[in-house]
Amino acid sequence: MTAILDSPVVARPGGGKNRARTRDRGLIVFALPSVIWYLVFTIGPLAAMFIVAFMDWAGLAAPAKLNGTENVSRLLDDDRVLTALKNTGVHLAVSLPVIMVGAFMLGYFLNLKLPGHRVLRVIMFVPALISLSAMGMLFVAVLGPTGLVNSALEQVGLGEHATAWLADPTWAMPSLILVTIWSGLGFTGILFAARLSAIDDEIYAAAELDGANHWQKMWRVAYPICRDYFGVLTMLQYLWTLFGSAGMVLLLTRGGPGEATSTLAWLVYRFGFRSPEVGYSQTIGLVLFVLGIVGLVIIRRVFRARY
């Protein structure tokens, strides 16, 4: 009996490998539904976009046929696309830096935990709780010909400066940019506040001993620590602004006056649902897709870690 207990245990050849294979098969089985979902509802529509972009198709009830590069040739000669591309660039170039810099500063301010910071958190989060349609109605009431802004100008004796802000070719795009900033600033600031709260107070205390003020602690201490997170939020805000502008344009200006507020995302909706020219819409969608990828790559390189 003692001899049996004292005898060495002989491992079965290949036993560890078999267990590993069994475990891997189990993981594959559990991951399979997610992979199928991703292939069907993400890769599938993406591949379909590339196919439909080279088709002449007026909608679900209409016959579709391939038309080669006719949509591409039309896109290159379409002044509306060029105008929308310029408007998209202006929209991003103004709103994205303002949102990101302003949100980071608001997030830092919230972490100072001054009196009233909890109320400010709630106020900043309000735009995220308002639906897109409600937001559109709100700003029509604010920026309309008889809206809040014009009424305020008249009350202070500046009625001659009142205008139909959303219907004025000069002010329509700035108004759209203002709405974008208002809708994105608070929520992004809350996300920054969550990240900044993880920074040890001793780091700020050490900076204060070196004579750093709040501005220096914000940009020379907090920002380098959160640089990668800043880049992630910039990428997300870039995508939200690039692809999400169609909804606000639809509710506020419908691309007008003329083509003053027409963006690429709006043209995708316009040709896809209002014309309808689904094939041409997806050709513009390809341009939007390429801009999204290029923008993400650039932002990633700008904010990549440097250590």
The first-to-last residue Cα distance is 62 Å
> How many beta-strand runs?
2
CATH superfamily annotation:
MetI-like
CATH 2nd-level architecture: Orthogonal Bundle
Pick out the low-confidence regions.
1-5
Q: SSE order in H/E notation?
A: HHEEHHHHHHHHHHH
Backbone shape: flat
Structural class: mainly alpha
CATH class: Mainly Alpha
Quote the beta fraction. under 5%
Could you walk me through the main structural features you see in this protein, from its secondary elements to its overall organization?
The protein is mainly alpha-helical and 307 residues long. It has one domain (71-303): MetI-like fold. Helix content is 73%, strand content 2%. It has 13 helices and two strands, in the order ααββααααααααααα. It has helices at residues 2-6, 15-52, 70-76, 79-111, 117-129, 132-143, 148-155, 172-196, 201-209, 214-225, 227-252, 264-274, 278-302; strands spanning 55-57, 64-66. The protein has a two-stranded antiparallel ribbon. Helix 11 packs antiparallel against helix 13. The chain is flat. The model is unreliable at 1-5 (pLDDT under 50).
What's this, in brief?
The protein has 307 residues and is mostly helical.
What is the topology?
Layout: H1 2-6, H2 15-52, E1 55-57, E2 64-66, H3 70-76, H4 79-111, H5 117-129, H6 132-143, H7 148-155, H8 172-196, H9 201-209, H10 214-225, H11 227-252, H12 264-274, H13 278-302
Antiparallel strand pairs: 1-2
List keywords for this structure.
307 residues; mainly alpha; MetI-like fold; two-stranded antiparallel ribbon; 2 strands; flat; disordered N terminus; transmembrane helix; sugar transport
